[in-house]
Protein backbone atom coordinates (compact mmCIF):
# COMPACT_ATOMS: atom_id res chain seq x y z
CA UNK A 1 0.00 0.00 0.00
CA UNK A 2 1.09 3.35 -0.82
CA UNK A 3 1.20 5.87 1.99
CA UNK A 4 0.17 8.73 -0.24
CA UNK A 5 -2.87 6.88 -1.55
CA UNK A 6 -3.96 6.02 2.01
CA UNK A 7 -3.67 9.61 3.13
CA UNK A 8 -5.50 10.71 0.00
CA UNK A 9 -8.41 8.27 0.61
CA UNK A 10 -8.50 9.23 4.32
CA UNK A 11 -8.76 12.88 3.30
CA UNK A 12 -11.61 12.09 0.93
CA UNK A 13 -13.44 10.09 3.63
CA UNK A 14 -12.77 12.89 6.12
CA UNK A 15 -14.21 15.54 3.77
CA UNK A 16 -17.22 13.31 2.93
CA UNK A 17 -17.80 12.73 6.63
CA UNK A 18 -17.42 16.50 7.24
CA UNK A 19 -19.86 17.27 4.42
CA UNK A 20 -22.45 14.71 5.72
CA UNK A 21 -22.04 16.07 9.24
CA UNK A 22 -22.47 19.66 8.05
CA UNK A 23 -25.41 18.77 5.79
CA UNK A 24 -27.44 16.35 7.97
CA UNK A 25 -26.19 16.42 11.56
CA UNK A 26 -25.07 20.01 12.15
CA UNK A 27 -28.40 21.86 11.24
CA UNK A 28 -30.63 19.86 13.66
CA UNK A 29 -27.97 20.22 16.34
CA UNK A 30 -27.74 24.01 15.79
CA UNK A 31 -31.54 24.18 15.70
CA UNK A 32 -31.80 22.33 19.06
CA UNK A 33 -29.14 24.60 20.56
CA UNK A 34 -30.97 27.74 19.32
CA UNK A 35 -34.29 26.45 20.68
CA UNK A 36 -32.64 25.75 24.02
CA UNK A 37 -31.04 29.22 23.98
CA UNK A 38 -34.49 30.81 23.29
CA UNK A 39 -36.12 28.77 26.07
CA UNK A 40 -33.43 29.84 28.52
CA UNK A 41 -33.78 33.49 27.42
CA UNK A 42 -37.58 33.26 27.76
CA UNK A 43 -37.19 31.65 31.18
CA UNK A 44 -34.84 34.42 32.32
CA UNK A 45 -37.21 37.07 30.97
CA UNK A 46 -40.12 35.38 32.77
CA UNK A 47 -38.05 35.26 35.96
CA UNK A 48 -37.25 38.97 35.66
CA UNK A 49 -40.92 39.71 34.99
CA UNK A 50 -41.84 37.54 37.98
CA UNK A 51 -39.40 39.47 40.16
CA UNK A 52 -40.90 42.75 38.98
CA UNK A 53 -44.44 41.45 39.59
CA UNK A 54 -43.39 40.24 43.04
CA UNK A 55 -41.94 43.65 43.86
CA UNK A 56 -45.15 45.34 42.70
CA UNK A 57 -47.26 42.87 44.67
CA UNK A 58 -45.16 43.47 47.78
CA UNK A 59 -45.56 47.22 47.32
CA UNK A 60 -49.35 46.79 46.98
CA UNK A 61 -49.38 44.54 50.04
CA UNK A 62 -47.44 47.17 51.95
CA UNK A 63 -49.96 49.84 50.92
CA UNK A 64 -52.89 47.58 51.77
CA UNK A 65 -51.32 46.73 55.12
CA UNK A 66 -50.77 50.41 55.91
CA UNK A 67 -54.34 51.18 54.85
CA UNK A 68 -55.67 48.33 56.97
CA UNK A 69 -53.66 49.49 59.97
CA UNK A 70 -54.93 53.03 59.51
CA UNK A 71 -58.51 51.82 59.18
CA UNK A 72 -58.09 49.56 62.20
CA UNK A 73 -56.71 52.45 64.24
CA UNK A 74 -59.64 54.63 63.13
CA UNK A 75 -62.15 51.91 64.02
CA UNK A 76 -60.54 51.32 67.41
CA UNK A 77 -60.61 55.05 68.12
CA UNK A 78 -64.26 55.25 67.04
CA UNK A 79 -65.10 52.20 69.16
CA UNK A 80 -63.39 53.75 72.19
CA UNK A 81 -65.28 57.00 71.66
CA UNK A 82 -68.54 55.11 71.22
CA UNK A 83 -67.81 53.04 74.33
CA UNK A 84 -67.07 56.16 76.36
CA UNK A 85 -70.24 57.75 75.01
CA UNK A 86 -72.28 54.67 75.99
CA UNK A 87 -70.71 54.66 79.46
CA UNK A 88 -71.43 58.38 79.85
CA UNK A 89 -75.00 57.91 78.65
CA UNK A 90 -75.49 54.97 81.02
CA UNK A 91 -74.02 57.03 83.84
CA UNK A 92 -76.42 59.90 83.06
CA UNK A 93 -79.36 57.49 82.87
CA UNK A 94 -78.30 55.89 86.16
CA UNK A 95 -77.99 59.32 87.75
CA UNK A 96 -81.48 60.26 86.50
CA UNK A 97 -82.85 56.93 87.75
CA UNK A 98 -81.15 57.47 91.11
CA UNK A 99 -82.63 60.97 91.35
CA UNK A 100 -86.07 59.58 90.44
CA UNK A 101 -85.78 56.79 93.01
CA UNK A 102 -84.59 59.23 95.70
CA UNK A 103 -87.45 61.61 94.88
CA UNK A 104 -89.93 58.73 94.96
CA UNK A 105 -88.47 57.52 98.26
CA UNK A 106 -88.71 61.03 99.72
CA UNK A 107 -92.28 61.31 98.51
CA UNK A 108 -93.12 57.87 99.94
CA UNK A 109 -91.42 58.82 103.22
CA UNK A 110 -93.36 62.10 103.35
CA UNK A 111 -96.61 60.24 102.70
CA UNK A 112 -95.76 57.68 105.36
CA UNK A 113 -94.92 60.47 107.82
CA UNK A 114 -98.23 62.15 106.97
CA UNK A 115 -100.11 58.86 107.48
CA UNK A 116 -98.28 58.30 110.76
CA UNK A 117 -99.18 61.85 111.89
CA UNK A 118 -102.80 61.31 110.89
CA UNK A 119 -102.86 57.99 112.71
CA UNK A 120 -101.18 59.58 115.72
CA UNK A 121 -103.69 62.45 115.70
CA UNK A 122 -106.54 59.96 115.58
CA UNK A 123 -104.97 57.96 118.44
CA UNK A 124 -104.37 61.13 120.46
CA UNK A 125 -107.96 62.26 119.80
CA UNK A 126 -109.25 58.85 120.89
CA UNK A 127 -107.07 59.01 124.01
CA UNK A 128 -108.24 62.53 124.72
CA UNK A 129 -111.86 61.43 124.38
CA UNK A 130 -111.25 58.45 126.67
CA UNK A 131 -109.44 60.67 129.11
CA UNK A 132 -112.24 63.24 129.07
CA UNK A 133 -114.75 60.41 129.41
CA UNK A 134 -113.02 59.15 132.46
CA UNK A 135 -112.73 62.63 133.87
CA UNK A 136 -116.39 63.35 133.30
CA UNK A 137 -117.36 59.80 134.23
CA UNK A 138 -119.78 59.61 131.47
CA UNK A 139 -119.69 58.62 127.85
CA UNK A 140 -118.78 61.18 125.27
CA UNK A 141 -120.63 60.66 121.99
CA UNK A 142 -118.07 60.90 119.18
CA UNK A 143 -120.64 61.45 116.46
CA UNK A 144 -122.27 64.24 118.40
CA UNK A 145 -119.03 65.99 119.06
CA UNK A 146 -117.43 65.34 115.64
CA UNK A 147 -116.85 69.03 115.02
CA UNK A 148 -115.10 69.42 118.33
CA UNK A 149 -112.95 66.35 117.64
CA UNK A 150 -112.05 67.67 114.16
CA UNK A 151 -110.88 70.94 115.74
CA UNK A 152 -108.84 68.96 118.25
CA UNK A 153 -107.24 66.92 115.47
CA UNK A 154 -106.41 70.05 113.53
CA UNK A 155 -104.72 71.60 116.56
CA UNK A 156 -102.62 68.51 117.10
Automatic annotation (TrEMBL):
> Where does it localize?
Cell membrane; Endomembrane system
| InterPro entries in the record | ATP_synth_B-like_membr_sf (IPR028987), ATP_synth_b/b'su_bac/chlpt (IPR002146), ATP_synth_F0_bsu_bac (IPR005864), ATP_synthase_B_chain (IPR050059)
Q: Pull one GO CC term from this UniProt entry.
A: plasma membrane
Q: Name one GO molecular function term.
A: proton-transporting ATPase activity, rotational mechanism
Please list every transmembrane segment annotated in the UniProt record, as residue ranges: 6-26
The record's section on Gene3D superfamilies has:
F1F0 ATP synthase subunit B, membrane domain
Q: Which domain of life is it from?
A: Bacteria
- State the coiled-coil residue ranges: 84-130
Q: Name one Pfam family in it.
A: ATP-synt_B
- Tell me how this protein sits in the membrane: Single-pass membrane protein
Sorted alphabetically, which keywords does the UniProt record give? ATP synthesis, Cell membrane, CF(0), Coiled coil, Hydrogen ion transport, Ion transport, Membrane, Transmembrane, Transmembrane helix, Transport
Question: What is the first-listed, main subcellular location in coarse terms?
Answer: membrane
What the entry lists under HAMAP family is as follows: ATP_synth_b_bprime (MF_01398)
Q: Family, per the entry? A: Belongs to the ATPase B chain family.
What is the purpose of this protein?
F(1)F(0) ATP synthase produces ATP from ADP in the presence of a proton or sodium gradient. F-type ATPases consist of two structural domains, F(1) containing the extramembraneous catalytic core and F(0) containing the membrane proton channel, linked together by a central stalk and a peripheral stalk. During catalysis, ATP synthesis in the catalytic domain of F(1) is coupled via a rotary mechanism of the central stalk subunits to proton translocation.
Q: Which PANTHER family match?
A: ATP SYNTHASE SUBUNIT B (PTHR33445:SF1), ATP SYNTHASE SUBUNIT B', CHLOROPLASTIC (PTHR33445)
Q: How does this chain assemble?
A: F-type ATPases have 2 components, F(1) - the catalytic core - and F(0) - the membrane proton channel. F(1) has five subunits: alpha(3), beta(3), gamma(1), delta(1), epsilon(1). F(0) has three main subunits: a(1), b(2) and c(10-14). The alpha and beta chains form an alternating ring which encloses part of the gamma chain. F(1) is attached to F(0) by a central stalk formed by the gamma and epsilon chains, while a peripheral stalk is formed by the delta and b chains. F-type ATPases have 2 components, F(1) - the catalytic core - and F(0) - the membrane proton channel. F(1) has five subunits: alpha(3), beta(3), gamma(1), delta(1), epsilon(1). F(0) has four main subunits: a(1), b(2) and c(10-14). The alpha and beta chains form an alternating ring which encloses part of the gamma chain. F(1) is attached to F(0) by a central stalk formed by the gamma and epsilon chains, while a peripheral stalk is formed by the delta and b chains.
Query: Would you tell me the protein name for this molecule?
Result: ATP synthase subunit b
Amino acid sequence: MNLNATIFFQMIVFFILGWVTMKFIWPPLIKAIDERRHKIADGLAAAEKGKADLAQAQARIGLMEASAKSELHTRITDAEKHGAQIVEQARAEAEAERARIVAQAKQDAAQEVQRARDALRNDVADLAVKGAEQILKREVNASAHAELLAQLKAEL
